[in-house]
């Protein structure tokens, strides 16, 4: 694992050698995944624009972003353990409880669709992953409750993304448990939650309920919480607010970074191939059942590439030429690219953010970019 510039080489850094200098990457489209499309079937227009990144806050190692129903404030998780608003308020402080490793700490945040409950994904001093709930009235977080805990065999590849899907369920990203090359084989093992995206109902039971239509409910030897598997370190994923498509950034090992795709209406159960495959290529001997190709891959042998950061499909109003394009970037190289969802090979570089750690989306579909060096940027037309 290469050393982080600040502390993060974090959740996001691929376990590859130092990157040579060179060109920025180009995306390529996989063959097995269904081709994404705009809801109305029209082609997205790439346009010729660039983006401007306007700093709206300076925080301490921001890594995750969310908004709350009927609340115009922007909430940002700092890796060191604090959930803060961009206007400076501290909502929850776990700084005395989180672990301090490069890929540990406070990693994810989401609000229940009602806005009444707050969820944080974080690792404790022993390295165990927690998904923890608080009741929240817009002023004070109370009634702390543990929803999910998962022991981690190593300190890296913790995932951390939390998001409520269009179906109202909570989706939780967990990496493969760490160690180079998935030494425990967790990515393809349906008997563990590691290397998976989970789908649970945190308010439907104690500590949570599993939706009856999850793909592995009732399957012997499989954890029913699993929604998708075969993932190495799905640091960030996001739902398309208009059609429900799911876009997943999975951090690679030695050669490839990838974006995976799950169409709206999927019944779940997709296998994205790790650790038998990295990108669309074989990584080690073994069998991955019905693997789904990534829709975007780029090489770790180009430029300073190290770790993919998945963003969102832009559905806002401020930047008309960007509408219907998926934004993603790389942590070390800092570039940000936009790809029309109906023609991902027509991607283009649209900006750069040093130490890009995450993207965010507000109530209006406008996008934000977070830098591990401290800045929270609003993405504006140039």
From TrEMBL:
Keyword Signal (UniProt): yes
Entry-linked Gene3D superfamilies: TolB, C-terminal domain (2.120.10.30)
Keywords: Signal
Signal sequence region: 1-17
Highest rank taxon of the organism: Bacteria
Chain ranges passing through the membrane: none
Region Disordered, residue ranges: 20-47
InterPro entries in the record: 6-blade_b-propeller_TolB-like, Glc/Sorbosone_DH, Quinoprot_gluc/sorb_DH_b-prop
Domain Glucose/Sorbosone dehydrogenase: 59-371
Protein name per its UniProtKB record: PQQ-dependent sugar dehydrogenase
Phylogenetic classification of the source organism: Bacteria, Bacillati, Actinomycetota, Actinomycetes, Streptosporangiales
């Amino acid at each position: 694992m290469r050393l982080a510039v600040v502390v993060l080489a974090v959740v996001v850094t691929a376990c590859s050698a130092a990157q040579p200098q060179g060109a920025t990457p180009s995306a390529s489209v996989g063959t097995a995944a269904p081709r994404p499309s705009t809801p109305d079937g029209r082609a997205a227009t790439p346009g010729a624009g660039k983006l401007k990144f306007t700093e709206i806050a300076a925080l301490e190692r921001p890594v995750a972003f969310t908004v709350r129903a009927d609340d115009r404030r922007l909430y940002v998780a700092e890796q060191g353990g604090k959930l803060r608003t961009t206007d400076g308020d501290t909502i929850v402080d776990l700084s005395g409880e989180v672990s301090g490793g490069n890929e540990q700490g406070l990693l994810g945040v989401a609000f229940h669709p009602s806005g009444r409950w707050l969820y944080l994904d974080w690792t404790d001093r022993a390295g165990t992953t927690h998904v923890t709930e608080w009741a929240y009235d817009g002023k004070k977080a109370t009634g702390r409750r543990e929803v999910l805990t998962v022991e981690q065999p190593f300190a890296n590849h913790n995932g951390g993304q939390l998001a409520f899907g269009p179906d109202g369920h909570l989706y939780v990203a967990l990496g493969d448990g760490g160690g180079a090359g998935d030494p425990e084989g967790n990515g393809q093992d349906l008997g563990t939650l590691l290397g998976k995206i989970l789908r649970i109902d945190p308010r439907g039971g104690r500590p949570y309920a599993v939706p009856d239509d999850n793909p592995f409910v009732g399957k012997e030897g499989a954890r029913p919480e699993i929604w998708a598997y075969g993932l190495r370190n799905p640091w960030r994923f996001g739902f398309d607010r208009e059609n429900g498509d799911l876009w997943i950034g999975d951090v690679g090992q030695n050669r490839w970074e990838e974006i995976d795709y799950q169409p709206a209406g999927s019944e779940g159960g997709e296998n994205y191939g790790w650790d038998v495959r990295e990108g669309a290529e074989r990584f080690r001997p073994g069998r991955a059942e019905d693997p789904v190709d990534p829709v975007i891959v780029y090489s770790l042998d180009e430029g300073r590439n190290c770790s993919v950061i998945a963003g969102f499909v832009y559905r806002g109003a401020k930047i008309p030429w960007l509408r219907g394009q998926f934004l993603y970037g790389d942590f070390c190289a800092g570039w940000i690219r936009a790809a029309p969802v109906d023609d991902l090979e027509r991607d283009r570089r649209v900006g750069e953010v040093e130490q890009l750690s995450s993207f965010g989306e507000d109530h209006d579909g406008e996008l934000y970019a977070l830098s591990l060096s401290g800045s929270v940027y609003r993405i504006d037309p140039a």
